[in-house]
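Following up on my earlier message about HQG. Here are the inputs again, as you asked, copied directly from the submission form:
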Amino acid sequence: MSDLKNISKFISLILRHKPETIGITLDEHGWANVNELIEGISRTRHFNMDMLQDIVRTDEKQRYSFNEDKTLIRANQGHSIPVDVELEQKTPPAILYHGTGEKFVSSIDVQGLIPKSRLYVHLSSDAETAKKVGSRHGRPVIYTVDSGQMAADGFAFYLSVNKVWLTKEVPVRYLHKMMSMNVQ
Ligand code: HQG
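Thanks, got it. Here's what our run produced:
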């Protein structure tokens, strides 16, 4: 893994889960002070503002945002700590996708999708992305989610700045398993 990618993983841990790792805090909207972040990270490795800007600009999932004057930074989604990143509530498309690992299927088929350690269940608008997400947990299994019906039934959906669909839960009645071999 390249140095920047490695540091990006670390930033993701700090901004979504454990800011205390480098002795900083996030505000209620998930913002961290950029100087504090750089100082905290550079205690253990070479790091500066240019590198941080590179990471934010080139991140393949656009995970992070600066505020306008680049004094603050936050993760766009994926948090386990309770912050309000001012997500946009939005009507979802009729179908969304969720990729998971085979080992979770028996539980999901009983319980539906729950956020587990995160604040929301993460959904994507295409099956290919769901397959990649699922592969992080072993052999991938992909579910389609009747998001249009859920929205009609009153469930709230949010679209993060980096285009991940989020919702609090997906009850079993809205879930259908896709045969993974159908996913290219
Ligand atoms: C599963 C990455 C048992 C769920 C990705 C998932 C994503 C259940 C796992 C983002 C369950 C949680 C999030 C139930 C859900 N019983 N297992 N009832 N309900 N699960 O990592 O969705 O690279 O917290 O299916 O790309 O895999 O970090 O969530 O398999 O967008 O930016 O519990 O993280 O983005 O795993 O991934 P996670 P996720 P980043």
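One observation from looking it over: The CA atoms of residues 15 and 75 lie 6 Å apart. Hope that helps, and feel free to reply on this thread.
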